[in-house]
Amino acid sequence: MISVDQLVVSFGGFELLKKISFLITPKDRIGLAGKNGAGKSTLLKIIAGQQPPSEGSVVVPKDIRVGYLPQHMQLADNYSVFEETKKAFDEILHIKKKIDHINHQISTREDYESDYYMDLITQVTELNDRYQMVGGSNFEAEIEQTLTGLGFKRSDFSRATSEFSGGWRMRIELAKILLKKPDVFLLDEPTNHLDIESIQWLEDFLKGYAGAVVLVSHDRAFLDAVTNRTIEISLGKIYDYKANYSRYLVLREEHRETQLASFKNQQKMIEDTEKFIERFRYKASKSVQVQSRAKMLDKLDRIEIDEEDNSRLNIRFQPPERSGTIVAECKHLTKKYGDLLVLDDIHLMIERGEKVAFVGKNGEGKTTLARIILNELEYQGTMKIGHNVKIGYFAQDQAQRLDENLSVLETIDQIAVGDVRTKIRDILGAFMFSGDDVDKKVKVLSGGERSRLAMIRLMLEPVNFLVMDEPTNHLDMRSKEILKQALASYEGTVLVVSHDREFLDGLVNCIYEFKDRKIKQHLGGIYDFLKRKKMESMKELEMKSKPDAVSEKKEKPQQPETKLSYEERKEINKNISRLEKQIEQAEEDITALENQIEAMDEKMSKPETASDHAIFEQYEQLKTKLSEIMQGWEKNLEEYESLKSQKTW
Q1: Which of 156, 271, 381, 491 gets the most CB atoms within 10 Å of its CB?
Q2: pLDDT, tens only, 211-225
Q3: Rounded to whole angstroms, what are the CA distances from 113 to 108, 118, 120, 121, 323?
Q4: Of 371 and 633, which is predicted with more confidence?
Q5: Cα–Cα distance measured from residue 504 to residue 490, given in angstroms and rounded to the nearest whole number
């Protein structure tokens, strides 16, 4: 379908791609893999016709439609979300415009018997047939389905695109490309701006899509779910396997081991042959054999070992000072942006050593709560940071906060202390800053390179509570793995906002789900959480589709058919413990307030204070506070009793 033939890309004498060739066939699901700077995005641009190669060619048949989503693009902001997305249906809209124009002519003309009038009737009939054939009757439903799948609410459809962040506008562009239904999708990091639910929707869409898909992604779980072929670009060459990414890694290692064994055997044979030639070079009786073996060596197709960048370093975060048991705790926390309520009366407690993830759809308040913990935003309610807690923060725009006039080496040298200073170049090398790269100014680095540099800075800071907002968005597989290992062995507390399932898997042990301005705690790993979520959604669908069964259950209560799992019991026990503490604290506060109110009653009964308005105001404030705490106490008590009853299942 698409042919890439002997492609070369050169920059100032450096060959990024060295005569690579491959075919993209129908039904291919190709994942382009490789470290940052290997040439993945460049290759997609060339296939999409956005950039010419230095040598070689890309042949795309004329009847093949290509849909290309780059990492970065210029976005227009002159339309609503729905109107902008509707542009995907240019052909349908063009046909509809023609139909409307001809219908107007038909309705205003009176020469019913003329050839021209009959020709108009024929045209509008053919156009209507074409309109129905290309999906004109249901394209608006497709737009709605795609936008909601990518995380938009129906109330967003009429909003101007200028009201949305860059990430959400990229979703609109992705929706347009998906709706055009090209023969080949070229997608460059499509999951960077998606939350977990939207990523799963996109996975399902691409898996069921009839055309071919070529995508660049550093999301291993996404690659494994979508792709059936992997092309890795490494040191200018490509390695092409009919397998998803995880299977490819195994096959590549097996191939390399076989290649290495063959190389060693051939080198032994060459060495023995050269020794024979050297030994008998001047003996006339052996001249024929010497010449024969010399010719054999000349004609020998010598095995070459694929170059491989194996430099790795087991980097660890700096050993943190010990913090208090409670690292961060919020009660009755509410956050509004003007009239928009983002977080409503939430409770959260993070303890020392926990590795916590914030997950949920974009716009549900994950980053907002992270910034409240950092004391960057105002809020209602209480937020307490524990004793001796020192916070290190990695923001989504952390890469943009670096000093652009410093070099890579200077940026790290600024914060490195002690023995670490002797290992700066090794650390930089582990994150793919080697040789002359360390002398580059920050301002010339790519987005991925800046993200890696910002991550190194954070790893070297002496903190005991790491708050990280989408730390993997611009990191390649290798950098993500290094970071994940470092976080796994980190002795401090970690809070990470992320949609990268592979990164979170095996790293976090507690998940807070953000939904409808509330948060819900789940103990266990990310796939345990997703499995429970899927089961919950399936149960909801089942209940909606079987109302009779629901009503029967209401008439006749049934005991749960299965007992709770260990993780579910563990989660309930933790929530019971949390509620017990909150109830106990509330009861202490209630007792203290009642004593204060009683003392105020006695004071107010005296004649000398009867006209003191300040005392009356204080008295009313105490009563209001008591009422609020009583309401919270009742709410926690109800939840406590409910969890206690679940525990007996």
Answers
A1: 156
A2: 899 999 888 889 999
A3: 14, 7, 12, 11, 92
A4: 371
A5: 15
- Say if residue 33's pLDDT is above 70: yes
**Per-residue pLDDT tens digits for 329-365:** 999 999 988 888 889 999 999 999 999 999 988 778 8
DSSP letter, residue 210: S
Residues near 366 by beta carbon (within 8 Å), at least 6 away in sequence? 358, 359, 360, 469, 497, 514
Q: How far apart are CA 364 and CA 343, in angstroms?
A: 8
Please count the residues of the chain: 649
> How many angstroms separate the CA atoms of 577 and 449, rounded?
44
Tens-place pLDDT, residues 181-232: 889 999 988 887 787 878 888 888 888 888 899 999 888 889 999 999 999 8
How does strand 29-33 pair with strand 184-188?
unpaired
Lowest mean pLDDT among 24-28, 36-40, 120-124, 170-174: 36-40
Cα(644)–Cα(641) distance, integer angstroms: 5
What's the token pair of residue 136? 């004109």
- Please report which confidence band the pLDDT of residue 646 belongs to, taking 50, 70 and 90 as the band edges: low
Say what the alpha-carbon torsion angle 630, 634, 635, 638 is, to the nearest 10 degrees. Answer: 170
Give CA–CA dist 503/494, Å, rounded: 13
Q: Return the closest-CA partner of residue 183 out of 146, 145, 209, 204.
A: 209
Hey, CA dihedral for 580, 586, 591, 594, is it positive or negative? negative
| Rg of the chain taking only CA atoms, in angstroms | 33
Q: Which of 434, 415, 461, 447 is nearest to 313 (CA)?
A: 434
Strand 55-59 and strand 29-33: pairing?
unpaired
Write out the DSSP string of 119-157.
HHHHHHHHHHHHHHHTTTTTHHHHHHHHHHHTT--GGGT
Give the model confidence (pLDDT) of 417-470 as tens digits.
666 677 788 878 877 787 788 888 888 887 777 878 888 888 788 889 999 988
Residue found by looking up tokens 């010719």 in the block = 295
Query: What CA–CA distance (Å, rounded) separates 272 from 424?
Result: 45
| pLDDT number for residue 562 | 44
Lowest mean pLDDT among 270-274, 388-392, 645-649: 645-649
For residues 445 and 408, the answer to whether their CB atoms sit within 8 Å is yes
Residues sharing a CB contact under 8 Å with residue 264, sequence separation 6 or more, in sequence order: none
DSSP letter for 351, please. E
Pair 444, 417: CB distance under 8 Å: no
Question: Residue 42: what are its φ and ψ, rounded to 5°?
Answer: -60, -45
Distances (CA, A) of 511 to 386, 477, 495, 508: 20, 23, 10, 7
> Which strands sit side by side in the sheet containing 518-523, from one edge to the other?
391-394, 465-469, 493-497, 355-360, 510-515, 518-523
Reduced to 3 DSSP states, what percent helix, strand and coil does the chain have, rounded to the nearest 5? 50, 20, 30
Cα separation, 384 vs 333, in Å, equals 11
The string over 210-223, giving b where at least 16 C-beta atoms fall within 10 Å of a residue's C-beta and e elsewhere, is ebbbbbbbbbbbbb
In three state form, how does the secondary structure of 461-474 look? Answer: CCCCEEEEECCCCC
% of the chain at pLDDT higher than 90: 18
